[in-house]
Design goal:
The protein is of the alpha+beta class. Helices cover 29% and strands 25% of the residues. It is built from ten helices and 19 strands. It has a four-stranded mixed β-sheet. A four-stranded mixed β-sheet has the order 4-5-7-6. A hairpin with a 2-residue loop joins strand 6 and strand 7. The longest helix has 14 residues. The radius of gyration is 21 Å and the shape is globular. The model has no long low-confidence stretch (mean pLDDT 95).
Length: 344
């Protein structure tokens, strides 16, 4: 049937996902406010999927692509070429897929179809590969079980499970450690409205808290998105965001140093660092280990950019320690990382 996605994003990561859907056999029509998808038949032969610079697309679509016959090659460009892919090999090889890489980097070549079974994966580097497995294994011929050690970004898996449920898929979740996935399921086509994005919203809320008055619309205050935690961080820093049914408001107030654990929401590090730079006192943000393999070494990039603005950033174990002050004008590099550009 026909699936309609309302309120889509048309950033480069989304455009990469749309093109991957086309290559994998979907007819995709794109309009200003919606994306319409319908099946157009099985793909034939070997294909290449270009993930652009999207780490999510690479990790999420690898298990999905492994459902198809032939050799599927996943590639990309820019910073994605330097991001390790061993977690894909480790997981898919347990489920019947032969995975070849270039020394642990792209391109990734998949051959041999994904089959039902049991796999143990390491979730310490994030949840995106698990999301792909949870999306793909319901279409396998029998039941599967995924055991996950050290899972970070649990809220994103909550989002995934909710999405699967909306499309008619059942997955049993045992405390985010074991996932039991019945096989031979079918996805149900329907209309889906995409929530506003808390990751992007976090920067604008911090801008309101540090420099003005900002009202954001189309955000779900009850969202499962991990980066909704920016609200908690703002409260810790002395801000009182006002949540209405259809909007969030942040305004300037006396900012104080805060302590925050961003292990489950590492994309909040750049806006939290900008917030800390404006706070009186020394703030501590935990979860630095999650930053080393983003679009940049994001921990080092934050330190260099804020350091150029005369804001002190240092590290102690897994903590980033930022002493607030008067940021000074400077010429800085984005380090080819959109979140660092937005922080600056």
């Amino acid at each position: 049937g026909q699936t309609v996605i309302l309120n889509p994003s048309f950033c480069e990561d989304s455009m990469a996902a749309i093109e991957i859907a086309r290559v994998l056999g979907a007819a995709v029509a794109v309009a200003d406010d919606r994306i319409v998808l319908e099946p157009s038949g099985q793909i034939a032969g070997n294909v290449t999927l270009n993930c652009g610079e999207s780490g999510l697309a690479l990790r999420m679509f690898s298990p999905v692509a492994a459902l198809f016959p032939g050799v599927i090659t996943l590639t990309g460009h820019g910073s994605l070429l330097q991001r390790p892919v061993n977690m894909i090999s480790d997981a898919l090889s347990q489920l019947g897929v032969k995975v070849d890489t270039e020394g642990g980097l792209l391109p990734v070549r998949l051959s041999g179809r994904l089959r039902a079974g049991r796999a143990l994966i390491d979730g310490s580097a994030g949840s995106q590969l698990l999301t792909g497995l949870l999306m793909a294994l319901p279409l396998a011929e029998a039941d599967s079980r995924i055991d996950v050690a050290n899972l970070t970004s649990k809220p994103y898996i909550g989002l995934t499970l909710g999405l699967l449920h909306d499309f008619g898929i059942t997955v049993e979740n045992e405390d985010f450690r074991t996932f039991r996935i019945p096989g031979n399921q079918s996805y149900r086509a329907h209309e889906y409205v995409v929530e506003g994005d808390w990751s992007g919203a976090a920067f604008l809320l911090v801008a309101g808290a540090t420099a003005g008055h900002v009202i954001l619309r189309n955000l779900n205050p009850e969202s499962l998105q991990a980066d909704r935690a920016i609200l908690s961080a703002l409260v810790e820093a002395g801000v009182q965001p006002v949540a209405e049914p259809d909007s969030i408001t942040a305004g300037v107030s006396g900012l104080r140093a805060f302590t925050f654990d961003a292990t489950d929401s590492p994309d909040l590090f750049p806006p939290l660092a900008a917030l800390a730079a404006s706070c009186e006192g020394t703030s501590r943000i935990r979860g630095v280990s999650r930053l080393r393999h983003k679009e940049s070494d994001r921990a080092e990039a934050i330190a260099k950019v804020l350091g150029a603005m005369k804001i002190s950033v240092r590290f102690r174990g897994d903590e980033m320690i930022i002493t607030g002050g008067q940021a000074q004008g400077a010429v800085v590099s984005s380090h080819n990382d959109h979140r660092i550009a937005m922080m600056a």
